[in-house]
Design goal:
119 residues; mainly beta; four-stranded antiparallel β-sheet; globular
């Protein structure tokens, strides 16, 4: 069973930085696609960034390009989301997600971690 455990986040000032971590276990993840999603109050969950564990290929939501960086540590089986130049609109619960590359949807989810950006 895949388990994803997020950590990091908290209260950050506008323009500040923070890093989220997602520790993955229960599988060999070389054939998995990993992602970060977020959900702000009263809004639908949205895709933020993703990375293919095998080749490190990445994709980003347009509004976070140049500010957020997704990366992986193959030894620690951990995914990171480095978040810089944070804005109030980045405030949300951030979720780590995983899918096998043959699966059509992200079907494994972490519990979420809150990021609040305040001036």
């Amino acid at each position: 069973q895949v388990q994803l455990v997020e950590s990091g986040g908290g209260l950050v000032q506008t323009g500040g930085s923070t890093r989220l971590s997602c520790a993955a276990s229960g599988r060999t993840f070389s054939r998995y696609h990993m992602a970060w999603f977020r959900q702000a109050p009263g809004k639908a969950r949205e895709f933020v960034a993703s990375i293919f564990w095998s080749n490190g290929g990445t994709a980003y939501l347009d509004s976070v390009k140049g500010r957020f960086t997704i990366s992986r540590d193959n030894v620690k089986n951990t995914i990171y989301l480095q978040m810089n130049s944070l804005k109030a609109e980045d405030t949300a619960v951030y979720y780590c997600a995983a899918r096998g590359i043959s699966d059509s949807e992200f079907n494994y989810w972490g519990q979420g971690t809150q990021v609040t950006v305040s001036s």
